[in-house]
Amino acid sequence: xxxxxxxxxxxxxxxxxxxxxxxxxxxxxxxxxxxxxxxxxxxxxxxxxxxxxxxxxxxxxxxxxxxxxxxxxxxxxxxxxxxxxxxxxxxxxxxxxxxxxxxxxxxxxxxxxxxxxxxxxxxxxxxxxxxxxxxxxxxxxxxxxxxxxxxxxxxxxxxxxxxxxxxxxxxxxxxxxxxxxxxxxxxxxxxxxxxxxxxxxxxxxxxxxxxxxxxxxxxxxxxxxxxxxxxxxxxxxxxxxxxxxxxxxxxx
Length: 252
Hints:
The protein is built from 11 helices and 7 strands. By secondary structure, it is of the alpha/beta class. It has a single domain, classed as Glutaredoxin (3-Layer(aba) Sandwich), CATH 3.40.30.10. Helix 4 crosses helix 9. The longest helix is centred in the middle third of the chain and has 18 residues. The two termini are 24 Å apart.
């Protein structure tokens, strides 16, 4: 049943970022520290607010991209970047379809900014079910281009990440429903440690408007709705970014 209760929607709207669980250790060689025993975690300045948030909410867990690349969440995907984070699950097909459709719309809107100063990440809520091979097909069907990655990993690592990022509920029944995590989109600027979240099932124009306000406009590609509608090209300052209905006309 692809719907959410009023209680769930309210909980998502007020969702606090939860503390991190301990990272899952051991396993295959690619998951281990380097040959000298040093963790692959590049820490920020000790004692800084950024370091504290990094340690608590951005665990450096190992993941696999849908293309088979081995990456670390913080070092390789998030550090020094503006990112948009979502979860997807084949156990919540309706919600997940809305998420990927919205991300595809954001990809069209922001154009060449995706993969340069903005990155989209869709993480498997159920990695034991949604393998990298399954996500590869999902990425192809979604039209994911450079800068939009579909990610899977070991269930304990994905769970650590989900809880750390605030995609979990303290209600066990609610948390077990994959629609809860899939129903949230979290985005932010890691260098500034400035984060926000929205309901992923909202209209694409609502999500895009929030991100434009937080991330700024930036240069628009020739295929972007910004350029097509206003002819702004590389001068995004000319676009009426405060008028969401005009800026995002036809995006959804």
